[in-house]
């Protein structure tokens, strides 16, 4: 199964990083307010970055690595791509 690490840009300009195995379903959940506590009142969202990984474990590790970056490094990642 393919897992996706994604970064959303929220309406307030903040960035949210998450993982899923179904990006369309996850985006619907975010849009309806059921996706994550952080995104509940920050929509609408734009998917700014996606990265495909082979396992949930690898996706969780990559998510943690991205979350540990400062905003400048995350913005550079958005520009550079996976």
UniProtKB/TrEMBL annotation:
Ranges for domain GIY-YIG: 1-76
A Gene Ontology molecular function term of the record: endonuclease activity
Cross-referenced InterPro entries: GIY-YIG_endonuc, GIY-YIG_endonuc_sf, UPF0213_domain
Pfam families referenced in this protein's UniProt entry, alphabetically: GIY-YIG
Gene3D superfamilies the UniProt entry points to: GIY-YIG endonuclease (3.40.1440.10)
Coiled coil spans: none
Entry's family note: Belongs to the UPF0213 family.
Name of the featured protein: Endonuclease
Naturally occurring in which organism (per UniProt): Nitrospira defluvii
